[in-house]
């Protein structure tokens, strides 16, 4: 299986498997294209993200959202200034991010699949594809669970979090 750059279509790496080596498993971004897309070349990054066919947010090492494409902004019903620089839980309106401890610091955060998947990708470099994840929205006393399928991919020191579907 091959990991291809979604921008230039170059092979990033081949992955050994029992399947045909011509099978594409993901469209990632090679280091060369990533350097063109991510800070400080922000206009190129935003143009690239807006060209993706799924809601995508970009998260940095601190867990803050750096950018989001138009599909993600529409899904979240937020403008860019309401997204950039904020913790992921606040951007996605997690009920537990509103607690005094804040996003990433409550007892609920240890079990958060979204957070754990993003952090694993940040620290290990491993991509994840279509991981079932729950998102608790509302207040910590009265919340509804939204079910998502998410995928992550590391690009330099950032993670692209894609929302594959809302179940």
Question: Gist?
Answer:
Helix content is 23%, strand content 32%. The protein is of the alpha+beta class.
User: How many DSSP E strands?
Assistant: 8
Contiguous helical run count: 5
- The H/E string reads EEEHHEEHHHEEE
Described by the principal axes of the CA atoms, the overall outline is globular
Structural class per helix/strand content? alpha+beta
By CATH, the topology of the largest domain is Beta-Lactamase
Helical proportion, percent range: 10-25%
Instruction: Just give the CATH class of the largest domain.
Output: Alpha Beta
Trace the largest sheet across and list its strands.
Answer: 5-4-8-7-6
What's the pLDDT, averaged over the residues? 83
- Low-pLDDT runs of 5+ residues are 19-25
Largest sheet: 5 strands, antiparallel
Percent range for β-strand residues: 25-35%
Would you identify the CATH architecture of the largest domain? 2-Layer Sandwich
Count of discrete structural domains: 2
What can you tell me about this protein's structure?
It is a single chain. This protein is 23% helix and 32% strand. The chain is an alpha+beta fold and 167 residues long. It has two domains: 1-37, no CATH class; 45-166, Beta-Lactamase. The strands form two sheets. The chain has a five-stranded antiparallel sheet. A hairpin with a 2-residue loop joins strand 7 (143-155) and strand 8 (158-166). The radius of gyration is 16 Å and the shape is globular. The protein starts with a strand and ends with a strand. Residues 19-25 have low confidence and may be disordered.
């Amino acid at each position: 299986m091959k990991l291809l750059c979604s921008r230039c279509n170059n092979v990033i790496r081949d992955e050994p498997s029992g399947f045909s080596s011509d099978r594409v498993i993901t469209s990632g971004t090679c280091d060369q294209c990533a350097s063109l897309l991510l800070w400080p070349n922000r206009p190129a990054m935003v143009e690239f993200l807006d060209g993706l066919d799924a809601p995508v947010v970009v998260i940095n090492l601190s867990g803050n959202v750096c950018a989001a494409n138009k599909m993600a902004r529409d899904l979240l019903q937020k403008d860019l200034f309401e997204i950039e620089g904020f913790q992921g839980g606040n951007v996605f309106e997690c009920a537990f991010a509103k607690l005094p401890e804040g996003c990433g610091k409550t007892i609920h955060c240890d079990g958060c699949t979204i957070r754990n998947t993003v952090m694993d990708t940040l620290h290990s470099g491993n991509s994840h594809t279509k991981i079932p994840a729950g998102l608790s929205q509302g207040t910590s006393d009265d919340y509804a669970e939204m079910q998502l399928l998410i995928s992550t991919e590391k690009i330099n020191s950032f993670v692209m979090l894609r929302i594959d579907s809302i179940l």
